[in-house]
Amino acid sequence: MVYLDHAATTPVRPEVLADLTDGFGVLGNASSLHAAGRQARRVVEEARETVADALGCTPHEVVFTSGGTEADNLAVKGLYWARNAQDPARRRILVSAVEHHAVLDPARWMADHQGAVVEELPVDACGRLSPETLRAAIERDPADVALVSVMWANNEVGTVQPVAELAAVAAEYGIWFHTDAVQAVGAEEVDFAASGVSALSLTGHKLGGPVGVGALLLARGVDPVPMLHGGGQERDIRSGTLTTPLLRGFATAVRLAVAERAEHTAHVAALRDELVAAVRAAVPDVRVNGHPTERLAGIANLGFPGCEGDALLMLLDARGICCSAGSACTAGVAQASHVLLAMGADPDTAREALRFSLGRDSTADDVKALAEAIGPAVERAREARARRRS
Amino acid sequence: MTLRVLAAMSGGVDSAVAAARAVEAGHDVTGVHLALSANPQSYRTGARGCCTVEDSRDARRAADVIGIPFYVWDMAEEFDRDVVQDFVAEYAAGRTPNPCLRCNEKIKFQAVLERALALGFDAVCTGHHVRLDNGRLRRSVDRAKDQSYVLAVLTREQIAHAMFPLGDCTKAEVRAEAARRGLAVADKPDSHDICFIADGDTSGFLGRRLGTAPGPIVDETGAVVGQHNGAHTFTVGQRRGLNLSGAPNRRYVLSIEPVSNTVTVGPREALAVDRIVGERPVWSGCEPPQEWTPFTVQLRAHGEVYPCRARQHEGRLEILLDEPATGVARGQAAVLYDGDVVMGSATIDATSRAQRTVASQNTQ
């Protein structure tokens, strides 16, 4: 199998697998007061320190979650509720139009059910939100903004946002700034303190850790209203029995991903360039979506004129090549990417896109396999769409 | 010969077993669920049909168990245009369409088949209960489940790329086989209603699309005997729902005249017709007969068959029934058989009685 979908999920690293295998054999609830509990608690706190150390925050600022979606929901809903409770005038949630659905949908839900007002801020044709756009949006009424949420790097096209600049704008007005850094950790230099953000989401399975575990980093004094109530774990912000073995594996994955970031990005960037060149050789009119320089090293989002992405995906899948055509609705119907639409694509053009994403174990052979398959696949997909339109 | 087969999987038991049989026959099979509504909840909420999220999931699970790749194809635009809007327009024109037939003709064996062929597939496989016999459609061995009537609209070219693995067994056998294969849909209830009408209330659905348009109900002499709220809510042969007070005898809808918005009623005898003209004839089983040729004809889904003679004349199908039939509605298909093999099909456009013309003949 040629796996070119590492942005969806990437293999668990052997070191992490060893942690998990060991960890699941050990008894103990980190909240218990006896020896077994203390042993588990020690593992959890070491994991917390490891994550904090890798990401430039203090251990106290790490709240473990079940993953990126929970972290994003906790940030958007919890921070809105907290801010709005302090000052009921603060009802606006400002998000970029290219956020992951784990941010976009909670924000829209807050508008539909909780009286929030959501503004989806426009991005340029490369998918970047400019600090000026954010400033103008805030300036319309700085006193009514509850929260700003702008992702660190986009999961579909790989565009990296000027997060520190954006966070600085929000900070000028004393507004909390959350960033979804699920795709960024291990790919970009992510330093929580230096970035100036108030809250940051990350997840394990995008960087070689297990699925089902992640974290929300929260600056001191930035305390969301909890979504999950119960045993009071994680400073009462996120109740639920701490998943000791998962946290240990997660911490190992974060530590290694951050430590190896430079060589990793050099590896995938070289493959990405090869991939784009190889596809372009077979399909000269291919479009490269996203930002030419401010982008993740491992993602190539390509538009194939005259093709439907889902047809192309199926044809590549039949050749053993895994890639992504964006998100699907609950019934499984491929949707035109809201990210590409926000970048100015029309729906037909947006449906022409496929995302190829590279990871630690990607090789030149993977790229070669794609290079061989893509030409004939595009030809067939074009024929299929032409017939559909006729 | 190994073919690349696209198995249309509705999420029901028939299409799941059909796909499994295609695999077993040695073909390279890919499962596809057709999403027929842009918003899956809009057509059917809380009920089982061909458009729900649950059906999509059932189809996916069946594909997993069978061990074939699975995708969802978005056919919502085509389905709305060629089936739903056509359905509404046909009723508005005073006809009684069969949307399942239309879906087979325009979606499964046109839009889907063409996309499949372009993408490198050789055939489309479905769970219809029908046999293929030397390139001809033949009734299923399960006469009660036979679907040759709603497939008779297919051309020879379409049939050449169709695969119907279930025609040689009964529905009971299909369910038993599904259970044996570990398919969870083995006991899933059959779908009966029109999949895009959520609650089975066809007249309510048409009312929302077409609005109400009060008009007269007249008898054969033209005398007004009642009022209706929209001619499109009636079907030729219908007796219920006429709300005619003081009628001495049971009366039936004889014809529907959309332009004047008039529904004509009369006694059951007046429903009897023995001449039928069909448009857009398709001859998949034989060459178009220029001379009067004996066949049997079926005039509605699961309806009885009537001995007849038929010919193609000036591009239309003409049928003379040996004995009169009742409840023959414009818009339904007239399907000609030789024994249990489909010879041809056309959309009923006009009906008449040898001595007496039924009004619908003149509603062009």
Automatic annotation (TrEMBL), chain A:
Q: Taking every annotated instance into account, which residue ranges of this chain make up the domain Aminotransferase class V?
A: 2-370
SUPFAM superfamilies of this UniProt entry? Answer: PLP-dependent transferases
| Catalysed reaction equations from the record | (sulfur carrier)-H + L-cysteine = (sulfur carrier)-SH + L-alanine
Cofactors required: pyridoxal 5'-phosphate
Which molecular function term from Gene Ontology is one that the record holds?
Answer: metal ion binding
Q: Among its keywords, does the record have Iron?
A: yes
Superkingdom to which the source organism belongs: Bacteria
Q: Which UniProt keywords apply?
A: Iron, Iron-sulfur, Metal-binding, Pyridoxal phosphate, Transferase
Protein family:
Belongs to the class-V pyridoxal-phosphate-dependent aminotransferase family. NifS/IscS subfamily.
Q: What is this protein called?
A: Cysteine desulfurase
